[in-house]
Amino acid sequence: MSWHTWLIYLLAAGGLSLTPGPNSLLALTHGALHGHRRALFTIAGGALGFMLLIALSMLGIGALLQASAHALTVLKWAGGAYLVWLGIQLWRAPPLQLQAADEALFVRPPRWSQLFRQGLFAAVSNPKALLFYGAFLPQFIDPARSLWLQFVVMAGTFMVTECCVEFLLARLAHLIRPALERFGKRFNRVCGGLFAAMGLALPLTR
Question: Is the pTM of this model over 0.70?
């Protein structure tokens, strides 16, 4: 992909990583309960899950591109509409409540395999994530370039960005959690507005 497209993708991936989701909340709570070092296993499991979902999305996108030359345009506009819808849902979502999630977690420090498994399952058990990648990734694909090379670049960029953001959440968990619970509604509206803006702008990006 071109340098200009990659920079836009990097900014979009960073914004998406900052939005609340199952894995970011899991990293946040594990960081608060077990420390940021042990939360690295949670983050690694989530990264593997995201990689699998991105690969499945790219396989589907590649099949559509082989079937129709106009499929990418259709995917871009359909994906943009889906991102706008997600933004509206996030805007209307209630503030984050993390205390209830803590009660379901381990009282004693769990093994690394348990943390890794929780991160992996949190990623792959969310069917909305597969739909989301199917809507988000086509906005940056150049059909004239190697699809697999673009997959490596986009998946690698997203993984590094997501892992850095989740580690920061785990590292600063005790400071971030009270702020999210206090200003959660406002935070959701900011993130929802970003989703909607991307959904409107990205299909027009060349």
Answer: no
